[in-house]
UniProtKB/TrEMBL annotation:
This is Eukaryotic translation initiation factor 3 subunit A. Residues 316-513 form the PCI domain. GO terms for molecular function: mRNA binding; translation initiation factor activity. GO terms for biological process: formation of cytoplasmic translation initiation complex; translation reinitiation. Component of the eukaryotic translation initiation factor 3 (eIF-3) complex. Keywords: Coiled coil, Cytoplasm, Initiation factor, Protein biosynthesis, RNA-binding. Residues 952-963 have a biased composition (Gly residues). It comes from Lactuca virosa. Belongs to the eIF-3 subunit A family. GO terms for cellular component: eukaryotic 43S preinitiation complex; eukaryotic 48S preinitiation complex; eukaryotic translation initiation factor 3 complex, eIF3e; eukaryotic translation initiation factor 3 complex, eIF3m; multi-eIF complex. RNA-binding component of the eukaryotic translation initiation factor 3 (eIF-3) complex, which is involved in protein synthesis of a specialized repertoire of mRNAs and, together with other initiation factors, stimulates binding of mRNA and methionyl-tRNAi to the 40S ribosome. The eIF-3 complex specifically targets and initiates translation of a subset of mRNAs involved in cell proliferation. It is found in: Cytoplasm.
Length: 973
């Protein structure tokens, strides 16, 4: 552990270590200084050291070091300068928040950046393995590595600060601000788990505050400022809980607010109570506690009406409608009719608890089922005048559901009202606690209540009914939903009905056991049995047997009735005895528990009181001794100064003097000084008395003379001013008379001018009125003509459009017919061409076959019987005109090629005159019997073909008939 002569040396050493990168050593050095007992006297340097220490802790995320340092610094400056502790804590939270936000922004930037070096390269093997093993995406991994550690540290910061400030009455504002910042942190980042822990931490702080009341700096909850901070924190907790939809935590926050107000016996301001009841309505609605939701709305309505002066009529009407609809949405039956005794007691305690939370004060001995009910709430709404503010649709719905008996038309009349109510709602301008009210949220519950009312009224009128009929009467739900609703109602004895699915019928019954059909069931049974017997065994003497049977039957009925009554009374007694036994057991257990708890509390209170008295007695003794020591020292100094002033021998401080001796000496000195002062004052009073008497004797005649002189001057001034006022009044009167006479002369001219002006303005008015009427008539006429013209134009446009549409349809039909005709002709033409091509192909095959046979015959040396050249072939049968040209072209191409050579299709279609066959030559010329230069002669205009030249065929050698020889240019080609 390093030791320093001054705290400044530790700060300087830490900065040196930070500059060389040794932050851990710098943090340890500052921590040793803060925790050392040598430097417990607060100085301004301590604050600088703490700032540097906090910065290092935040930079290195050392939450425990920060907590230890803040606790030690609280010990140092708690009694000297608590504001320094506040500044350090604020700096700590600001740094943690900034670093968390910075980490979050870096994670977002890292997610958006393109961190790939080569865009064409695949992922690295280690990245693939990491992704397969961890299963995380890039953003999740960056959050886990960057954001999560800083958010954890920020959360630890809030917890540390709350723990340090929990029992500090001087920093209540900072405690509340820290709690608010922690709430906002949980709200911003949706941290529900941390929010629950935060609420539990604050709740435990308050519990410990009430448990240990003898702490030195404990906040006083009865003080208005402390109560304001605590309530403000609880209300912020309630708001954040509802926004995060943590309804259980929101309900616990409501209980915290109620417990705090009950503890200090003081209600918060009306604005906070409005927020309280608004949040209660949300909590009860989410938990489907419609009755408690309606009571909370009722209290909110009363509070807004009493304290919110800016509430206009529309907002008040909307809130009142919400109150009445919430009350109507509650189920019309009691859930506890079939409950057991324990359930009834539990529900009684629950109702008392809810009543306290809502703000109603009732007697615990009363039956809360009668007080806390739907009927009593509706009666309160009527008696308190809420119905006067409700909209007409909601009021009509209330009368239909509660006062009307319409078993067949109830649903049909309720449905349009619910449709209108669903459209009502909006923002409330002047009630900040309830920013918006939407009445559509009550529609499902109201539909269920309307269905229950319809079933109740139908069961009172009908005994049986078809399922289809009931389904048509209830347009809100299908029959399966109605059946679920009816099962719940039957369970709570609201109606009695059965559903026979095989017959498709609904059977309604009576609820009470002592109903009209069951009161005389034995007599009805006897009568039916007697009728059955008389039908089976008819008898002549019916009257005599009936008279003999009636007395015994009456006795039997009476006996059965008595047995039933006795059995019922026995059952009731057994129930009462069992309930009494259970109540006695519960009372005994509760009494034992209360006694034990009371003894424990008394013992704890006695121990605490004894310890408190001892500490108080010791503190008083110490204070008395210290006060006496201070007073003796002050008296000693005072007496020494007085004795020095008088020139006497002063008291030596080292002498053994007691407080009593010093007090006696001081009293003597004071008495002596007082006597001397009284003598001086007596002498001074006597001197001043003589001096004052002499002054007054000399001034008396001068004062009298001055008074008489002033009196004469005032009299003269009064007479002069009075005379001047009379003269001025007379002059004003004469001037007014002259003005009156002067104006009277022009009165007649004034009247004439007035008449002229009135008549001229009336004429002008009549003229302008006539012009206006004429202008209006012209405008009306022009508008009428414009309407006629527009109507005609529309008619013309309509007819023209119809005509154009008809022409367009005819043109499209003509085009379709033309296209079909063309398509048909094209198909026929293609069929003819295909037929001609097929014939040509067959003819070519025949020619090739003949040429092949001829060549084979020539090679074998056998004579050829048939024609050997294409020109010697017999002429083909005449073909159709359309096929003449292609056939001639094909024959010419075949002859010119020297036999069965392939002729391209584009050569086949050449004109016939270009491919005319050469004239026939004698057989001797075919084998080269002519001149040498004539052997290779080719037909004029023909080209050389290597195949025919090399083979020495007749087709190649028979071309020199005309005495023409091949040109060298042809051969060279």
């Amino acid at each position: 552990m390093a030791t320093f002569a001054k705290p400044e040396n530790a700060l300087k050493r830490a900065e040196e270590l930070i500059n060389v990168g040794q932050k851990q050593d710098a943090l340890q050095a500052l921590h040793d200084l803060i925790t050392s007992k040598r430097y417990r006297a607060w100085q301004k340097t301590h604050e600088k050291i703490m700032f540097k220490y906090i910065e290092l802790c935040v930079d290195m995320r050392r939450g425990r070091f920060a907590k230890d340092g803040l606790i030690q610094y609280r010990i140092i400056c708690q009694q000297v300068n608590v504001n320094s502790l506040e500044e350090v804590i604020k700096h700590f939270m600001d740094l943690s928040t900034k670093r968390a936000e910075l980490a979050r922004s870096q994670a977002q930037a890292l997610e958006e950046a393109l961190d790939v070096d080569d865009l064409e390269a695949d992922k690295r093997p280690e990245d693939l393995m990491l992704s397969y093993v961890s299963g995380e995406k890039g953003k999740d991994r960056s959050d886990r590595e960057l954001v999560t550690p800083w958010f954890k540290f920020l959360w630890e910061t809030y917890r540390t600060v709350l723990e340090i400030l929990r029992n500090n009455s001087k920093l209540m504002a900072l405690y509340a601000d820290t709690a608010h910042r922690a709430f906002q942190f949980c709200k911003q980042y949706k941290r529900t788990t941390e929010f629950r822990r935060l609420c539990e931490i604050i709740r435990n702080h308050l519990a410990n505050l009430n448990k240990y009341r003898d702490q030195r700096d404990r906040p006083d909850l009865t003080a208005p400022e402390s109560l304001h901070f605590y309530l403000d924190t609880r209300f912020e907790q309630l708001k954040v809980a509802t926004e995060l939809e943590l309804w259980q935590e929101a309900f616990r926050s409501v209980e915290d607010i109620y417990g705090l107000t009950s503890m200090v016996k003081k209600m918060p301001k009306s604005s906070l109570m409005a927020i309280y009841y608004a949040k209660l309505t949300e909590i009860f609605w989410i938990s489907s506690s419609h009755l408690y939701h309606a009571y909370a709305w009722f209290k909110l309505f009363q509070l807004q009406k009493s304290f919110n002066k800016n509430l206009n009529q529309k907002d008040l009407q909307l809130i009142a409608s919400s109150v009445l609809l919430a009350a109507l949405s509650a189920p019309p039956y009691d859930h506890l009719k079939t409950a057991s005794h324990l359930e009834l007691e539990h529900d009684k305690e629950r109702n008392l608890r809810m009543y306290n939370l809502i703000g109603f004060n009732i007697d615990a001995k009363l039956e809360t089922r009668e007080v806390l009910s739907r009927s009593s709430l509706l009666a309160d709404l009527v008696s308190k005048g809420v119905m006067t503010y409700v909209t007409q649709e909601v009021k009509d719905l209330y009368h239909l559901l509660e006062n009307e008996f319409l078993p067949l038309d109830l649903a049909s009349k309720v449905q349009p009202l619910l449709t209108k109510i669903a459209k009502l709602g909006g923002k409330i301008s002047s009630a900040s606690s309830v920013p918006e009210v939407q009445l559509s949220q009550y529609i499902p519950a109201l539909e269920k209540v309307a269905t229950l009312r319809l079933l109740q009224q139908v069961s009172q009128v009908y005994q049986t009914m078809k399922v289809e009929t009931l389904s048509k009467m209830v347009p809100f739900f299908d029959f399966s939903a109605v059946e679920r609703i009816s099962v719940d109602a039957v369970k709570h004895n609201f109606i009695a009905m059965k559903v026979d699915h095989m017959k498709g019928a609904i059977i309604f019954g009576d609820l009470g056991f002592e109903s009209d059909t069951l009161q005389d069931h034995l007599s009805v049974l006897a009568i039916n049995l007697n009728k059955s017997r008389s039908l089976i065994y008819p008898s002549q003497s019916k009257a005599s047997k009936l008279s003999a049977m009636l007395p015994s039957l009456a006795d039997i009925v009476d006996k059965e009735h008595k047995k039933l009554l006795a059995r019922k009374s026995i059952i009731e007694k057994r129930k009462e005895e069992q309930e009494r036994h259970l109540l006695e057991m519960e009372r005994e257990e509760e009494t034992k528990r209360l006694k034990l708890q009371k003894k424990t509390e008394e013992a704890e209170q006695k121990r605490l009181a004894t310890e408190f008295e001892e500490r108080k007695h010791q503190r008083i003794l110490r204070e008395i001794e210290e006060r006496e020591r201070e007073e003796a020292q002050a008296l000693l100094n005072d007496v020494g100064k007085r004795i020095k002033k008088k020139g006497k021998k002063p008291i030596i401080e080292g002498e053994k003097v007691t407080k009593q001796s010093l007090m006696e000496l001081a009293m003597q000195e004071q008495v002596r000084e007082r006597q001397e002062m009284e003598k001086k004052m007596q002498k001074l009073i006597k001197t001043m008395d003589h001096f004052e008497r002499a002054k007054r004797e000399e001034a008396a005649p001068l004062i009298e003379a001055a008074f008489q002189r002033c009196l004469a001057e005032e009299k003269i001034r009064h007479e002069r001013e009075q005379q001047l006022e009379v003269e001025l009044s007379r002059e004003r009167h004469e001037g007014d008379l002259k003005e009156k006479y002067r104006l009277a002369r022009v009165m007649e001219h004034k009247m004439e001018l007035e008449e002229k002006v009135v008549s001229r303005r009336k004429a002008e008015y009549d003229r302008m009125r006539a012009e206006r009427e004429e202008r209006l008539g012209q405008i009306l006429k022009a508008r009428k003509e414009e309407r006629d013209l527009k109507r005609k134009m529309l008619f013309y446009l309509k007819t023209e459009k119809e005509r154009l549409d008809k022409l367009r349809e005819e043109e499209e039909a003509r085009k379709r017919e033309e296209a079909e005709r063309r398509k048909k002709e094209e198909a026929e033409r293609r069929a003819k061409l295909d037929e001609i091509a097929e014939r040509q192909r067959k003819r070519e095959q025949e020619l090739e076959e003949r040429e092949r046979l001829r060549k084979e015959a020539i090679l074998r040396g056998t004579p050829i019987d048939g024609p050997t050249r294409p020109s010697e072939l017999p002429a083909p049968a005449p073909a159709p005109a359309a096929a003449a040209a292609p056939a001639a072209a094909a024959a010419a191409s075949a002859a010119g090629s020297g036999g069965g050579k392939y002729v391209p299709r584009h050569r086949r279609g050449a004109p016939a005159e270009t491919a005319a066959p050469p004239p026939a030559q004698p057989s001797s010329d075919r084998w080269g019997s002519g001149k040498p230069e004539e052997r290779g002669a080719a037909p004029p205009g023909d080209k050389w073909r290597p195949s025919s030249f090399g083979s020495g065929s007749a087709g190649g050698a028979s071309g020199g008939a005309g005495g023409k020889s091949w040109s060298s240019s042809r051969f060279s080609r």
